[in-house]
């Protein structure tokens, strides 16, 4: 039961960060550095906890995939904001154009959630329960830092 709760933690946090992306604009650089450090801490924790080098390498690669997913989300959020500014500035923009853009955004959000869910599931499957328990705190810190960084956009 505990693994199932943990499995849904990432997608729920991901959804929260995508819908709550309006934050303060200050400190973006420090937040990005905090995010990078948090993901580096997760990698270091995996390296120290997982005894099998092959499983550790797979888990570290998956953490890198999650980090890349957050980078991609940040980039797509910026593009979405710019597209909405364009639509808002165009007084002749049709309602269908705006609805199509919203549909594309929802589709992107679902795709991002699926990627993070899949990576998270693979990560849980690679590690033993004891290893996962040891790494989970560092992973939560990394995800919190990533969410903070995205909310600053």
Q: What quaternary form is this?
A: single chain
Number of helices: 5
What about the largest sheet? none
Structural class: mainly alpha
The portion of residues assigned to helices is: over 70%
Determine the mean pLDDT. 76
Number of strands: 0
Specify Rg, calculated over alpha carbons: 17 Å
Element order, helices and strands? HHHHH
* Termini separation: 35 Å
Please tell me what the overall shape is: elongated
Strand composition percent: under 5%
| Uncertain stretches of 5 or more adjacent residues | 12-26
Q: Could you write a compact summary of the structure shown?
A:
This protein is mostly helical. It contains 5 helices and no strands. It is elongated, with a radius of gyration of 17 Å.
Features:
153 residues; 0% strand; 5 helices; mainly alpha; single chain
Account of the protein in words:
There is one protein chain. This protein is 86% helix and 0% strand. It starts with a helix and ends with a helix. The model is unreliable at 12-26 (pLDDT under 50). It is an all-alpha fold. The protein is built from five helices and no strands. The radius of gyration is 17 Å and the shape is elongated.
